[in-house]
Amino acid sequence: MTFKKLFAFGLVAAVLVACGDDASSGPVTGSNEDSSSSVCENCNELSSSSNVIASDATQSSDSTSSGSLASSLDDSSSSSSVMLSSSSSVLEGYVDPSTVVAGTMTDERDGQTYKTVTIGTQTWMAENLNYAYLQPTAELDSSSFCYNDSASYCEKYGRMYLLSAAMDSAGIWTSEDKSCGFDKTCNLGDDYVQGICPVGWHLPTLSEWFVLLSAVNGANYGGNELKATSGWNDRSYPGSGNGTDAYSFAALPAGYRASSGYFYEEGDYAYFWSSTEYTVSDANVVYLYYKTNAVVQHIGNRAHGLSVRCVKD
User: Fold this and answer.
1) Are 133 and 282 in contact (CB under 8 A)?
2) Coil/strand/helix, residue 188
3) Are strands 269-277 and 282-289 parallel, antiparallel or unpaired?
């Protein structure tokens, strides 16, 4: 099946922002060298393709000055990120939060039930996927993980998946091996793929993430409307990192698993895979950060473990 790309952001202004503005913040973007803190020590690896998608550029400036997973998710040598801001307060495709419809779905593979939410034309899981995909890789005995290797974190955040697992490169749920692991290309184009998701659902393309961001971005800046109302760090002041969850998407800051096997940034960042490739070692990622309302598109190394949200076919 093919999903037509929809980039409904209207007119945008590109602003280059130097990485070193705020050394206390930072996302992780994808080299195989891992950072043990969110300090901007890997700023030279920030990708020039990192886009902060917000309706007010002033609200998202400090998210691109970061140097954690988002600054090590790729191998780019650029020291700047591109911020996109809309010239209109309400974007094309905006969905009023009062119209969203909550529901549930059950994954027949393991009986787990997930909250769902219909936002405009899309229906998303309103929780991170927690299916135990345990296919080994060449170097690991599993390709999905609980944060800190603790089952209690899976209950809270769902599992973290290598891109090969998120795409079901072993072909467990599909008729043929997609060979979408590290250092291999999937060549999907605009086609979407079920991947690790239940039947009737699929791993979102980057275009589908953009449709969601268009739907919520017109409300304010996007990130607050997608974040859960609790669970985010609040080092600035009590409650400062939490969102309004206006669209019942309930994004939680699960952090990520580095290729080294260590876990980072729980409480600070929510990272989500898309099925859209970037290079043989990277794919497009969407992330949210506790310190800003921005929603950021970035490049993630396939060897990292990130969260998955499935969208209905």
Assistant:
1) no
2) coil
3) antiparallel
